[in-house]
Design goal:
Largest sheet: 3 strands, parallel
Distance between the termini: 16 Å
CATH topology of the largest domain: Rossmann fold
Shape: globular
Strand order of the largest sheet: 4-1-5
Strand content: 5-15%
Number of strands: 8
Oligomer: single chain
Mean pLDDT: 90
Order of helices and strands: EHEEHEHHEHEHEHEHH
Radius of gyration: 19 Å
CATH class of the largest domain: Alpha Beta
Length: 236
């Protein structure tokens, strides 16, 4: 299994990030200074990642501008679509084939985290790139999971689903329809809330996964397994 992070940060790497905003950087075996998320991937998946597993907007634009200056585009007008979106897809295809284990075997599954929030202007090139990517690799080889917050105000205790509805509606308008909706909440999702998300977000109830607050982060994979997430991947 392969895991990596694509980020809408315009910086090229995380070495200049302020720890007050992002926490400490994580240093990979090849010296790459990256977001802490990459450290979580290594720990949970027992893999070894490189700096190329951390894709930022800055890296993509630098790559495209370098190609343009070199004349690779033969004088064509360089645009976000198709040049930036193509560069994102090419990076994904290339890195997905790189082994992350000592055995040197090509990974069978590649997990990509697209950071940011639905609607952020910075992430639009990535959204469009993955909209195209799902057809390039065929829909049966592409699974899209949306992580959405289900707030629960302390004054009422009611779990609110509207933010999730709005996120899914906007994503569908951009050409991406979630296969799984992973709900972050403070307490387990009520059955009626799960049904409501299912009805308004065009997924089956079993495709709504609840990740509520737990005492240890290592219990999160067990929550996913208990709700059939592994079976969903296997059946897909």
């Amino acid at each position: 299994m392969h895991g990596w992070l694509s980020s809408d940060y315009s910086t090229r790497a995380a070495d200049t990030f302020s720890p007050y905003e992002h926490g400490e950087v994580f240093v990979l075996d090849d010296g790459g200074e990256v977001d802490l998320d990459l450290g979580n991937y290594e720990r949970f998946l027992d893999i070894r990642l490189t700096k190329d597993n951390n894709l930022t907007t800055g890296k993509i634009y630098q790559s495209v501008i370098t190609k343009e200056r070199r004349g690779d585009y033969l004088g064509k007008t360089v645009q976000v679509v198709p040049h930036i979106t193509d560069a994102i897809q090419e990076w994904v295809m290339q890195q997905a084939k790189v082994s992350v284990d000592d055995d040197g075997v090509e990974p069978q599954v590649c997990v990509i985290e697209l950071g940011g929030t639905v609607g952020d202007i910075e992430s639009m090139p990535f959204i469009e790139a993955f909209r195209q990517f799902q057809f390039k690799v065929k829909r049966e080889n592409f699974l899209f999971s949306l992580v959405s917050l289900v707030p629960q105000p302390s004054t009422t205790g009611e779990q609110k689903t509207k933010p999730t509805h709005n996120s899914v509606r906007e994503l569908c308008g951009l050409g991406l329809s979630p296969d799984l909706i992973v709900c972050r909440c403070s307490t387990p999702l009520e059955a009626a809330v799960k049904e409501k998300i299912s009805m308004f977000c065009h997924v089956e109830p079993e495709q709504v996964i609840c990740i509520h607050d737990v005492s240890s982060v290592y219990k999160v994979p067990l929550l996913m397994e208990d709700q059939g997430m592994v079976d969903f991947f296997a059946d897909g």
